[in-house]
Specification:
With 237 residues, the protein is mainly alpha-helical. The chain has a domain at 25-108 and 134-159 and 193-235. The protein is 73% helix and 6% strand.
Length: 237
């Protein structure tokens, strides 16, 4: 292994780690979804792993096509930029829709008080109709189940901007083995960083209970996705 390849590999690991940490869309949606839907750590890991692999796969395939076909790097950067815009706006749109659905769900699950007289004594109790009429709201369950798949689609669309121009094309000047090595390092570090941040965040939040805000949990999920999409579009994160 030459010094250039070693330097590229170290750069790949560093760029992957920093790129993932600076991009809140790489972990916040999973943390919010896990908290709102009561996912176990194992389920959260599976969802994060699947989306992480999907996230890097698109750029890797595009990069290899470019290397083999000799496509100009400017063309690939334009494709990656377009993919990034589509992913960001998709995240914004889905976040808004999910937030509205969450508000509707929260309103239907609003606690209220009923009073009645029993044995000459007036009683009042607070409850909601969510459990009683759960069979009526099957569409809500289906809408909530769409969330993880929507995140997966967004991640597949989302590019790894630095992978092709900074890592794959320079590595191709050495050998195809170097391209495979550098790409593997970038992909592994990206996914591991996502898993590390998500698992740590979910574990840290597991004992935090906010009963009065629980019915708004899906609103927070939608808002998180919306803000992540805005951070990509406006701040380029």
């Amino acid at each position: 292994m030459t010094s250039d390849v070693m330097l590229l590999s170290a750069t790949a690991a560093t760029v992957a780690f920093v790129h993932t940490l600076l991009g809140p869309d790489h972990y916040l949606p999973f943390v919010a979804m896990a908290k709102a839907r009561g996912w176990t750590i194992a389920k959260t890991v599976r969802a994060t792993l699947l989306c992480g692999i999907g996230h890097i796969s698109g750029s890797i395939v595009l990069g290899f096509v470019g290397v083999y076909a000799g496509i100009q790097i400017g063309t690939l950067e334009w494709v990656e930029g377009t993919r990034g815009s589509v992913a960001a706006w998709t995240l914004i749109a889905f976040g808004l829709v999910y937030m509205v659905w969450g508000l509707r769900k929260a309103y239907k699950n609003k606690p209220h008080t009923h009073g009645h007289r029993h044995a000459g004594v007036w009683h009042a109790h607070e409850h909601n109709h969510h459990r009683r009429h759960a069979h009526v709201h099957v569409d809500q369950k289906r809408a909530g189940a769409v969330g993880p798949w929507a995140i997966f689609i967004v991640f597949v669309l989302g590019p790894c901007e630095a992978l092709i121009p900074i890592l794959m094309y320079p590595a191709a000047k050495q050998s195809m083995a170097s391209v495979f090595l550098v790409t593997s390092v970038f992909g592994i570090v990206t996914v591991l960083t996502m898993l590390m941040v998500v698992v740590f965040s979910v574990w840290s939040l597991k004992d935090i209970k906010l009963p009065k805000l629980e019915r708004f949990s899906h609103v927070f999920v939608g808002g998180t996705m919306f803000m992540c999409g805005c951070s990509i579009t406006l701040l380029g994160l």
